[in-house]
Design brief:
The chain has about 280 residues and is of the alpha/beta class. It has ten helices and nine strands.
């Protein structure tokens, strides 16, 4: 009968090519035995049941083949919130917390702003904003009904009632409404980028990842049409690729956005650009 320590040592040998092999193994094991990583560190000599050990081995081999840990355990943490994740949604990533952090710096704590989250996926951005700004009204859209179902479940799990989810592409479900701030983490990988056929990206919906020859098609569309849905001095904030900041700033300036700014993610890359509608 294998101990926790022995099972983890075996797993790390199997998935040692992953930069996060140790963390991956701990998350998978913790999910199976219903224990925290702190418990795993505290009780490494604890014995695993035979069924638990078999399940763990199966998940480790699936991880070795490239399946994302978030899909294997069905959840991902974002902004300290646990979110359900499925193959119908983009897996929330730490880089997107940069957008949430910057948005919260601009959204007043004492006002009831109207916020739009376009292409919401799991609802990560909308849910993070709603949890921090309960007086705001958030409208979250997505063209995937399956993704919206996941987002709605995540909102319900966190008992949030200030988010309305709407089915449709980008601005279409917004009709003629106006917002104080529009947020989006759109697809921004080039269609022919080889990374789409590597690692975790193989298991995520391509429609949530890729956008045109340069990865800029959806970003360009959002910037070109946002003014119709913003109040004067309203803010458009978009996440983009590490090498797309300059293009995003140019597009914002061409569409009469002022004080255009780009912020960097936790790795120091340009990640989020925004401007104020003049």
């Amino acid at each position: 009968m294998a101990s926790v320590k022995q099972a983890l040592q075996w797993a790390l040998e199997e998935i040692n090519e992953s930069d996060s092999g140790q963390l991956d193994a701990e998350l998978l094991l913790g999910e199976i035995i219903g224990k925290s990583r702190a418990w795993i560190y505290t009780w490494p000599e604890s014995a695993l049941g035979e069924h638990e050990h078999q399940l763990f081995q199966q998940l480790v081999m699936r991880r070795k083949s490239g399946e994302p840990v978030a899909h294997l355990i069905g959840k991902q943490e974002f902004w300290s919130l646990e979110l359900k994740v499925t193959g119908d949604t983009l897996i929330p990533r730490p880089e997107t917390e940069t957008l949430v952090e910057q948005a919260l710096k601009l959204i007043p704590t004492d006002k009831s702003w109207r916020v739009a989250d376009l292409g919401t996926g799991t609802g990560a951005i909308a849910i993070a904003i709603a949890s921090e700004r309960p007086d705001c009204t958030i409208i979250a859209t997505d063209q995937s009904r399956a993704a919206l179902s996941v987002a709605e479940e995540n909102s319900s799990n966190h008992q949030l009632n200030n988010i309305e989810y709407r089915d449709g592409s980008w601005f279409l479900p917004l009709e003629k409404e106006k917002f104080n701030i529009i947020l989006s983490n759109p697809p921004y990988i080039a269609m022919e980028d080889p990374h789409l056929e590597q690692g975790d990206l193989r298991y995520e919906p391509n429609s949530a990842l890729a956008s045109g020859k340069e990865g800029m098609d959806d970003i360009r569309y959002l910037i070109n049409h946002a003014a119709n849905f913003l109040h004067k001095d309203g803010i458009l904030m978009i996440e983009h690729g590490y090498d797309q900041g300059e293009k995003a700033r140019e597009l914002l300036q061409q569409q009469s956005f002022s004080s255009v700014t780009t912020t960097h993610d936790i790795s120091g890359h340009e990640r989020v650009s925004y401007g104020f509608l003049t």
